[in-house]
Amino acid sequence: MSSCPSPPSRTGSRRRGKKGVELAQGEYRDWALSGFSGYIAADELYDGPYCVLSIADNRTFRRLTYKVLDHDPTKEDIEAFLADFKAALALRGLTLKGVTTDGSPLYPQPLARIFPGVLHQICEFHVLAELTKAVLRAVARVRKHLKARCPKLPQGRPASKEAKRNARIKKRLQRKITDLFDHRHLFVQHGLSPCEHKTLLRISRGLPHLRTLRAIMDEVYRLFDRRCRTATALAKLSRLRRRVRRFKTVGRTLQKLSSPTLEKALVFLDDSLLPSTSNAVERGNRRHRKMQKSVYSVRTHRAVTQRMALDLLREQRSPPRALTLRSLHLARAG
């Protein structure tokens, strides 16, 4: 009797799959680093029990490398990840000029050890998001306070003079609450038109601390103006902090102004090529989350790693694919 061939072992297939992923990642890294700008964005993506560390070119928007962990990242993991990337740069004779991250405490110490002297920029978007959330919470507290001041009316139409007066007061307060909710974005919007500024003055009448919050937000936005340098912006920030401390209510709302991450978010002003946000790597993370929505129940370390490798392959083939599609459109147009 002829012996049946034994099925391939799962261990061997896993090894071949892992080796293929490593080869594909190395080939992709050669392509991605061929036009390296010198500025990167680093971020971590939490996907169920796994964490994906990613580095992207912050000017060409190419993902340069990644690493899948089966646990929450530590500073040692970040340091090993950055050391591997530094070795890849040294192998090709490339130099890192700037790094942009979010406000996570995982990156400052490993970056100082692996890339000493390299500019470290905190993402401007994350810093402003925290400040705008604080202002919107303050507006919500005002709405809640106005709602508590509304008088309680008996059922039916008001008959007495006092009931009619309370009805007018309640109607006026309800209109104020509605206006503050419908136009709450005006307190944090970057730049207002004359019509929007007029609306803001109308809905904040009798609420001077909200007008103060809006004026402070204007000063915060002016800190990130590319026309000034970091030293000038830091001097403006120091004066703004002293101004906020004089207003106790406003000071409690804008405690984020005293955070050292705000100072690190102004580093990009001294380098015209250093991006102020980490959108390059965040965009890839958003694409990964969107893909994972359809396969949420089958997450494994191998699947996440292969999905990241597939995303790199897609990114590598996107320029010639776009060129082909453009040629086809031109040919069909005649």
Characterization of the model:
Helix content is 59%, strand content 10%. By secondary structure, it is of the alpha/beta class. It folds into two domains: 23-123 and 274-314, Ribonuclease H-like superfamily/Ribonuclease H (Nucleotidyltransferase, domain 5); 124-264, no CATH class. It has a five-stranded mixed beta sheet with strand order 3-2-1-4-5, with helices on both faces. A hairpin with a 5-residue loop joins strand 2 (50-57) and strand 3. Helix 1 (10-32) packs across helix 12 (301-333) and helix 7 (208-223) packs antiparallel against helix 8. The longest helix is centred in the C-terminal third of the chain and has 33 residues, at 301-333. The radius of gyration is 27 Å and the shape is elongated. The termini are far apart.
Total helical elements: 12
Q: What's the total count of β strands? A: 5
> What is the 3D form?
elongated
- Oligomeric state as shown: single chain
Fraction in beta strands: 5-15%
Please tell me the total number of domains: 2
**Strand line-up across the major sheet:** 3-2-1-4-5
Distance separating the two termini: 67 Å
Order of helices and strands: HEEEHEHEHHHHHHHHH
Mean pLDDT: 85
Q: Low-confidence stretches at least 5 residues in length (pLDDT < 50)?
A: 1-16
What's the helical proportion of residues?
55-70%
**What does the main sheet amount to?**
5 strands, mixed
Q: Can you tell me the CATH class of the largest domain?
A: Alpha Beta
Question: Which class best fits the helix and strand makeup?
Answer: alpha/beta
At the fourth level of CATH, the homologous superfamily of the largest domain is Ribonuclease H-like superfamily/Ribonuclease H
Mind telling me the C-alpha Rg?
A: 27 Å
Could you tell me the CATH topology label of the largest domain. Answer: Nucleotidyltransferase, domain 5
CATH second-level architecture of the largest domain = 2-Layer Sandwich
